[in-house]
Amino acid sequence: MNISKGKIPGARKIVIYGQEGIGKSTLASQFPQPVFIDTEGSTKELDVARFDPPQSWPELLAQVDYVIAHPDVCRTLVIDTADWAEQIMIRYLCQKNKWESLESPGYGKGYQIAAEEWSGQLLARLSEVVRRGVHVIVTAHAWLRKVDLPEEAASYDHWEMKTSKKVAPMLREWADAVFFLHYETIVIKNDDKKGKAQGGRRVIETNHTPFWDAKNRFGLPDKLPLDFAQLAPLFQPIVQQQEAQLPVIAEPDPDCPFTGPAPEAPDGIPPELWKLMQRSSVGEAEVVEAVAAAGYFPANMRIAQYPSDFIKHLINVWDQVYIFIQKLQNRKENH
To answer: Is the pTM of this model over 0.70?
Structure first.
């Protein structure tokens, strides 16, 4: 049984929501090397990479599957937006089950089926994208909902994601951070104590209040200017660790007497994986140990016995594999 200590670097799961036009898509476009699944055409004026707009729920899921199979195509996958994606899903379920609406099955069954589809099909896939080392950003529109307090005989307005009541809580629970974007008006009081608006600024709310849903696991201040530079440090640890721990690969020296063709890959190790192992000075035993420690396959299983799709996965995320191998080696040295 393995017990690890300290922070574990990895890809982020972030939900960004706010009113239309506040800058959700623009902010998402500034995350590392994004590719958009644009469900509503909101990226037309942005210079970004994007899939064709999905015309059906299976097509949207297939686009996520493509990123899972090819995690090197981007560093960030953006679902823009969750509420439009949910409507695509609802149309699919209604057509599939020949319902007029989610109300058709009665007693909330349609909404429960939709929630299970959202969690089991989309969120499960997005979690796999994160495991492949790709950040996931989900944007959503916001709306005001009136919250009643019977015990106080009062009510107040609360900002939340413009999705169904079952989908929003699942998104909040799944995400590492939920950021609420809005326009904060600056009010100046005059001598007569009456307030007067004197402009404002766009801000990111990072923690929950009675007035909006938000959260973060990164210890961020409650309020930030709406500027990606404020969030960029969330991605620095991953980059810095890779830069600090990956070996520097020198160009071959033509005058060196040992310069020559690289050794051939041992039987059962694909040449592409073997090149990465040679570059990082990693042997088969160290790869096998890391794979076993991560819980994928037993320690007595050779690389030649790994499924071909898992070999491809190792190649695609080799930088992270190497960081993990180094961590295991450091633990041995410190014990």
So the answer is: no
